[in-house]
Amino acid sequence: MNIKDEFHKLIDDIEDETLVQSYYELFCHLTKRTEGTLLHDLTNQEKTELILSYIESHNEENLVKHDQVIKEYSRWLGK
Question: Which of 11, 29, 67, 74 is most buried, with most CB under 10 Å away?
Answer without folding.
Answer: 11
